[in-house]
Specification:
The chain has helices spanning 9-12, 93-117, 142-157, 169-172, 234-253, 261-296, 316-329, 358-369, 390-406, and strands at 7-8, 18-28, 34-38, 40-41, 55-57, 60-68, 71-76, 86-91, 121-126, 131-135, 163-167, 187-192, 196-199, 214-222, 225-232, 299-301, 304-311, 333-339, 344-350, 373-375, 379-384. It is α+β, with helices and mostly antiparallel strands and 407 residues long. The protein folds into 3 domains: 7-91, Elongation Factor Tu (Ef-tu), domain 3; 97-248, Threonyl-tRNA Synthetase, Chain A, domain 2, CATH 3.30.980.10; 279-406, Roll (Diaminopimelate Epimerase, Chain A, domain 1), CATH 3.10.310. The radius of gyration is 38 Å and the shape is elongated. Bound molecules: zinc ion. The site of zinc ion (ZN) has 6 residues, from helix 2.
Length: 407
Amino acid sequence: MLISATAKLYYQNPYWRECTATVLQQITDECQKNWVVFDQTIFYPTGGGQPHDTGYIGKQKVLDVEERDGVIWHQLDTPLTSDQKQMQMKIDWERRFDHMQQHAGQHILSAAFAEECKATTISFHLGQETCTIDLDIKELTDEMAKEAETCANQIVFENRDITARFVNEEELEKYPLRKKSTVEEDIRLVIIPDFDYNPCGGTHPNRTGEVGPILILQWEKHKGHIRLEFTVGKRTMDLLHHKHALLRQVSRVLQTNEAGLLEAVLRVQEEQKRLTEELLQVKEELLTYERDQLLSSAEELHDRILITQLYEERPLTELQKVAQLITGQATNAIVLLITGGVKQQFVCACGTGAHVEMNTWVKHILPRVEGKGGGNVLIAQGGAASRYSLEQILEYARDELYMLLEK
Ligand SMILES: [Zn+2]
């Protein structure tokens, strides 16, 4: 059955929130979704960068709205019964008006960029929280953005008319369009007199004052263009409220007012840097103390000294540091530090006067503890299979060291 095009009431009056419509057809698609066509509708379908409306038709929730060949299809959460012919439609007005603000705000901002910066808008995306436009320029400075934003908000403050009318190609030529229409017939022109003439199928408020504040948030380079993020209308107010609350919270935490905030943050940063340096110094002192403790517990080994120690759990890097502090202090020292934890690991180090090769020692220990490791003559390290206790590792390492020294 051929269905005639749906009468689009949102073009007659974008402020209509409710209407009655007659059911023309209902189908269930291959994904088990219910779609209904009416003689007329106030539900705007996805298109022209604007998301579809939601709302209710009778008691049924409208989940999606699509246009195909002039026919508007409404996806309902449950099918209509055969006796449901005349239905009451109601759109989610808050969502629609938000879309109207974002869409018209985009027209104004794009026109302002064209006017102030000779930058053409090549695409628009209306997102859940913010909107973006892609501008056909390579660079955007703070000054340029500020000028365009000021110009856009000036148009809002002047509360100019926004009108929309369908024109044919001939009439279209009379208007100073910034971009060519993508459709050839039923061209809908959205007009802000003496400012912007834009072919667009979206919904817009009647006056620029209803658009509300336009705020540029940030921009970045994207595929050779500039992608600019902004908010319009109530979204701008919500965002500013949120930011203001956050600033107040942070000010309270830092015990300052908004004007002193930056200074307070810099002070905290400076203080943290100082404390980190102090902490490093204290750690260094602790390690030195530990070095001296370990040196005092050293056992004599011919003309060398041997220092061994077991740890429940310590990072290998810390053990290397302690070992090197000892061998730096006592050149005849041989150090073996073993730690448990996630892995059993050990560090072997010696001073330049000890005359033993640490990598050779480790190479002899490894087969006995089923481990892997390596290093150089002065410091080497290895891991052991988990079934060997720290005491066993120590015992095997000692055996190997005595054998090495006897050679
Ligand atoms: Zn539009």
